[in-house]
Specification:
The complex is a heterodimer of chains A (140) and B (72).
Chain A lengths: L2 H26 L7 H30 L1 H5 L4 H30 L4 H30 L1
Helix pairs in contact in A: 1-2, 1-5, 4-5
Chain B lengths: L4 E3 L1 H7 L5 H8 L3 H8 L7 H11 L3 H4 E3 L5
Antiparallel strand pairs in B: 1-2
Classes of the chains: A mainly alpha (140), B mainly alpha (72).
Chain lengths: 140, 72
């Protein structure tokens, strides 16, 4: 498996685990009502710091074990894979934005909107990484 | 979807002293995986990379890549 595939797997697993935990905690442990937005913010800060730390450490270790690959610039096939992944991630974002617009008119609360937007971003990111991993595997 | 052209990169590598995919990739400026994908017909390279590959083997482009008339 190449360095870029490994880093994509790390990103996928870390994001799925961190935000899986975030949404689980949000659903089971946080208070309902207006206070939820501050609690969501606190939990989100913890998750964000956790993601940055976990990815920095794990990817740093992988890069140290294959420094040549880690420092190599992406070639044309890898750039094409990157663009296609980003292209497919655009669809969940568009659908999610329209969903949120609908939720605003339907009178949903601020915390619900915040977490729906967050879920859309997480979903788009997972689609991007998933498509890129599929293309790396298919063409590799 | 299969590409409308084939290539002889594998044979040319063998004839060039059993050059590895990694060596060819280094000389062309792409990864070993990209050379493997081109060889297997899974990735269509840019014209620039196609010319660079032909240049490494000191062959004209059509000696490396052949258009398949049946897939027009």
């Amino acid at each position: 498996m190449t360095f870029r595939e490994k880093t994509h797997w790390v990103s996928l697993v870390v994001i799925a685990t961190a935000f899986g935990w975030y949404f689980f905690r949000l659903h089971t442990a946080l208070p309902r009502g207006p206070g939820n937005i501050a609690a969501s913010g606190g939990l989100l800060a913890v998750v964000t710091i956790g993601i940055i730390l976990a990815m920095s450490i794990i990817i740093g270790v992988i890069a140290a074990r294959s420094p040549r690959e880690a420092h190599a610039a992406a070639d044309e096939r890898e750039r094409a894979i990157h663009w296609r992944g980003t292209h497919y991630a655009y669809y969940p974002i568009v659908i999610g934005v329209w969903l949120c617009i609908g939720m605003i008119f339907a009178g949903y609360s601020m915390p619900t909107l915040l977490n729906t937007l967050l879920a859309v971003v997480v979903l788009a990111e997972m689609v991007r990484i998933g498509v890129q991993l599929y293309l790396y595997r298919r063409d590799g | 979807m299969a590409l409308p052209f084939t290539n002889d990169i594998r044979t040319l590598r063998f004839l060039a002293g059993e050059m590895t995919q990694g060596d060819l990739g280094d000389r062309v400026g792409v990864t070993r995986q990209t050379i493997a994908a081109i060889e297997q017909g899974k990735y269509s390279p840019s014209l620039e990379v196609a010319f660079r590959i032909a240049h490494v083997f000191e062959k004209p482009l059509e000696a490396v890549f052949q258009w398949n008339d049946h897939k027009d």
